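Section: Multi-chain targets

For targets with more than one molecule, the full set of components is provided together so that the structure can be written out for the assembly as a whole rather than chain by chain. Components appear in the order listed by the source. The example entry contains three components.
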Amino acid sequence: MKYYDKLIFELSKPGRRGYSLPSGDWGDGEIPVPESLRRAEAPKLPQVSEPDVVRHYVNLSNMNFGVDTGFYPLGSCTMKYSPRINEEMASHPGFTGLHPLQPSETVQGAMTLYASLSSALCTLTGMSAFTLNPFAGAHGELTGLMIMRNYHNSRGDTGRTKIIVPDSAHGTNPASAAVCGLEVVQVKSTPHGTIDVNDLKPLLDDSVAGIMMTNPNTLGLFETEIREIAELVHAAGGLLYYDGANMNALLGKVRPGDMGFDIMHLNLHKTFSTPHGGGGPGAGPVGVAAPLADFLPAPAVAPDGNGRLEWFEPKNSAGRISGFHGNFGVLMKAYAYILMLGRQDVKNVGPYAVLAANYVKESLKDCYKLPVDSLCKHEFVFDGLADDSSDVTTLDVAKRLLDYGFHAPTIYFPLLFHQSMMIEPTETESVETLDAFIDVMRKIAEEALTQPELLKTAPHNTPVRRPDETAAAVHPVLKYNFQSAEQ
Amino acid sequence: MSKIIEGLLYSESHEWVRAENGTAEIGITDYAQKSLGNIVYVDMPDEDDEVSQNEEFGAVESVKAASDLYSPVSGTVTEKNDALEDEPGLLNKDPYGNWIIRVSLSDLSELDSLMDAAAYKEFLDKEAH
Amino acid sequence: MSSAYFPHTEGDIRKMMERAGITSPDGLYADVPEDFIFKREFDLPDGMSETEVRRRFDALAAMNVPLKVFGGAGAYDHYSPSVIPYITSRSEYLTAYTPYQAEISQGTLRYIFEFQTMMTELTGMDVSNASMYDGPTSAAEAAMMMNACTKKKSRIVLSGSLLPQVIEVVRTYCGYHGLALTVIPHKDGTSDREAMIADVEKGDVAGIIVPSLNRFGIIEDLDGLSDAVHSAKALMTVYCDPSALAVLKTPGEWGADIACGEAQTLGMPLSFGGPYLGFLTCRQEYVRKLPGRIVGETKDADGKRAYVLTLQAREQHIRREKATSNICSNQSLMALYATVYMSLMGYEGLKEVNRLSSVGAHWLHDRLLETGKFEEAFDKPFLKEFALRSRIEPERLQHELAKAGFFGALPAGDDLVTFCVTENRTKAEAVALVDAIRRMTI
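Its structure, encoded as tokens over all components, is:
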């Protein structure tokens, strides 16, 4: 990676252009808009040639690290390899030109894909119906909670305004609940990081809409008391929401529907290999058990009885949550991935992911503090270095990993421990890659004792080093300053 | 060890109060600023806003955390510390020398419910265990 | 041996199991109750080769009918430069996560900073976030943001001239978020200003959302509206098409506090509805209530210019239930799409896009009226999209056009239909569309 310091605005020179538009057979008429409705000043967009643009963005990309660059053990993010056939299929010209509002008789192929992917997700999760409209995991959570509220309200059960969320949950869980107008009630974790059933029991009454859980949880541990939790919540009239962020641990082996979950979302950009794109676009399909199928958002797809698929609004629809029907291009990628794996290989995803995590965990637990020493699922959490006689922190270890060409784990999450380091290796990494990572982690643990300063000042080989986040937040500079550039 | 100053009153949510002649200055304690780290923003109420005891009146943010401010007393905001807008780090440098808001007290008896320096020290010791 | 995506040989598996202290494959799930283990077959086809997957997608594609797009209603068939997919498919962008580790994410962070700058330029606002999911959800976030900025006010007023999907999504979010919603019907195709102002003056309104280019393609004149809204201590959000803002009066110029909308028009293919790109920009004073990721400039340990995610204390991973929004992943790669597009096009390119589209749309508008099958609907200034009253039943008109190979005449309520022309359309295609309509019976 090489430091490159330009912004596109700094390459701009009046008179240059990077576009090619048809000269048009419409004539050279002016834009027929009255002056009073036109902007006073031209926006300051760059004036650059096409080669300028290409080189600039290629140079910028050289300062980025992706799964294709190297190992990316970012816990809870499932940074697995994204097959290129996904990309090729998503840019299939038979789909990219389709307008979302085209009459349904002209988009039967696209609608069939939508329906087929929904069915595939149903069989893989044990749910009855899926909407593919949500754009991301958090959007799926919100959609799922809307379904939950709508379900209770439709039965006249209008007092259910609380949602139970474990204290170890991803921040999106409580945030989604708040957006959905639900009051968040925290349930405590046991020292093992699983839900404390004794703390849960007194929280359950007829004001509770349901509970949001990930299983395995954020420590990568299977919630072994899930059966009892499901029974308790259902007995109190609540529903169980499954946050699919950790579904990769179970894919092909255990289905949320079979564990008693009523509503769930999947992150196609995690479990189903669609690339994360530096922060999206993802997709957060929401699945529901049979009694909730009528509550999915609009539009949904179903056969019209004449051999064709038609859009419709489910009877008790939670409403519309997206402009059209989701990030369709992302759905195409996930569908390609499922077709490639097929019904046999999909059964290996979870097991290989779990095997990789346990392999790394067992290989490092003498050097790093393992707060819960047991079988993990797809990820696990260390609480800093085993030998904490130096003042080296998790942040320092993370930054030092960058020097060695690895992405850092998720750090300082979950909040249960002070030096959390959450590692998720995924099923697409070879044992050689895992070994290389293990070697480096061991070396860093050694460096922490012999040369702590090296870690405190790491990284050393990256394009930039420890940017000043405090200064960035105290006096935010959130856009390019054209004035100071002119001076 | 966090610094505690004699003569101030303290709340369990780690605000301090300097009360005099029916008005009070409110700030955050040394313990609070240490747990937050580098403070990058202080969200303050406006002049003439009402604050109530134990209710939220603003927030302090660091890069990786945010903490709501709870008013130890009730009253009307007469002044906010504008210096913190430009330099929120003042709360790190000198937490007791930099108040956040000045309040005209509506109920002097509320002061009795707050801790003095010794009680707050004991409270912190207990929290640490 | 299994899929190309699993690198494990039998020897590797043995070695890994041994180290992990697991004696049999079932041991990996020893902590899962036995009856939760799925032992049946999934209802999925056998695994395919790439050739077979291509064949499957080709077969699906053959069930679609490609149409010449003369419709918009929130998704527009603009020119998409060849450079963009080349850049956005680079591994370094495509396969990165959210830029948490700034040291190895300067590429992502820099283009977001450029994107933020360009969006503030187009909308005339002070600050921008790193993107929203799509236009309608950006409007829903704007509604919640107006509520957060005005503290206790919990009613939102929408103009009925907004796209129906925008109104519907805002309605869904408001309903669950505990915000009351009033939709003021449009008056002669544009926002009913008097009715909206009268409603806002009741005092309980957090803010209003009005379109810049509305559902009928009309350019709304918002002169003076923000003053009335602000005197009632409410906020004004303008929903807009950033491509058109290269030439139209900006939300900033109209006095808006927030601008939001759909940026699919910045070079993104139609792709059956997504991925697209929502955006949200606002005035400086509301930056702490702006949802989503924001990138800021700073210096690194060596004094080099560097970029980081900033103002994170607003976000869900820190504020949890007190965050202004639950958004986490957004549409980052689509923001790169738009940034590369805006770099290539510049102001001149965008102006030309608008010129070609609007001249074409006005040509089509006049020719369609000449067919005798339509009547003028509103006779107000429009850009690339317009509404007419159809003398042919709208549903039938749309389906007959589809049979003739065109997507156009989108039903827009009553006997109204909308058409749209972009620079991707030729005059010959438009002539063919007019001919097809001329041949239809009323």
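Chain A touches chain C through 200 residues (CB under 8 Å).
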